[in-house]
Amino acid sequence: MTTRPRGRPRAFDREMAVRSAQRLIWQHGFEAMSLSQLEDAMGIRRSSLYSAFGSKLGLLGEAADLYIADFAKQRDVVLPGIRSTLGRLEAMFGLFSTIFVAPGGPLGCFLCSAALSCSNENEEAVNLLIMRRKAFAEVIRAELEAGVQSGEFIPDTPVAALSDFLVSVIQGMSIGARDGKPVESLRQTATFALSVPARYAAPKGASPAPAATAI
Description:
Elements: H1 14-28, H2 35-42, H3 46-53, H4 56-78, H5 85-100, H6 110-113, H7 123-150, H8 159-178, H9 183-198
Helix pairs in contact: 1-2, 1-4, 4-7, 5-7, 5-8, 5-9, 7-8, 8-9
């Protein structure tokens, strides 16, 4: 005698459903999307949405994490073999330029666009997206710090300020993409922005920065 499994299996493709919701939120913003609109886009009932994601905010978090995972996969394709920090940053900014104007997809960066026009009632959503954007900022900062440690940049390179500057440029590129700027324009912006950290390149033959010591 066989026993039936307890509970009812989810009758939807979770990733496909999240991508459908992600696209709407990306285009129109988190606050503008009602649960009914998300249900229709995902092809599920509200009860299934709550069962799978807990809340509309939980759905946003999963959509944001999927966006970050997608970018990480694309980054891992282009970065292997690139040893220099400037080369790696150029490759990542090239990806941003391409992703932000991908044919047939929403324009700009999901992590920026999703937070557009959120009121105080959706402060949790704004904070969630801020934390996800900080993850990108940490990637940029880690690349710059690695450049200092390897001797590519001079020891007193202002890593924090450069990181903040480059992240601001990325956000500006996202807005530019939504305003209709073509990929060539975004790439020109990226090239100009990366000329700033290039000013801190160490002279050839300079020794790497000393390793930090524990206190």
